[in-house]
Amino acid sequence: MNGISSREHRIITAAFNKFEAMSAVFSYVLEESQESEIREGMESLDKLYEKYNKLYGELERCIKEYEGKKKRVRTAINKGNRKLISEGQKNPPLLNF
Question: Is the pLDDT of residue 1 over 60?
């Protein structure tokens, strides 16, 4: 899985900010539809980036929670297995074949 590069998003945001500043000065150069397409595209890109950051944060929390639970469960399993093995050595089960 490839992530979204924060650096690349900052670069495109800076380019958009430059676009906004220049389009305010030279408002007659671009057609309204071109400018609208750029603005809507950037707005959509920003929303997706925010969604990505939110989901990534949730994923990190999930991973941390999973790792903690995995450690507790593994410890309980190992402890249980040691007790069972010890009991099996003391009192071997009768096998009925």
Answer: no
Q: What predicted TM-score, i.e. pTM, was given to this entire model?
A: 0.71
DSSP state of 26: T
> Who contacts 53 (Cβ-Cβ below 8 Å, separation ≥6)?
none
H-assigned helices in the chain: 6-25, 32-90
Contact 57, 4 (CB under 8 A): no
User: CA–CA distance from 11 to each of 7, 45, 53, 92 (Å)?
Assistant: 6, 13, 17, 69
Cβ atoms of 60 and 41 closer than 8 Å? no
- Token pair for residue 26? 């030279």
* CA Rg value for the chain: 29
- DSSP strand E in the chain: where? none
Stated length of the chain:
97
For 83, the token pair is 């007790």
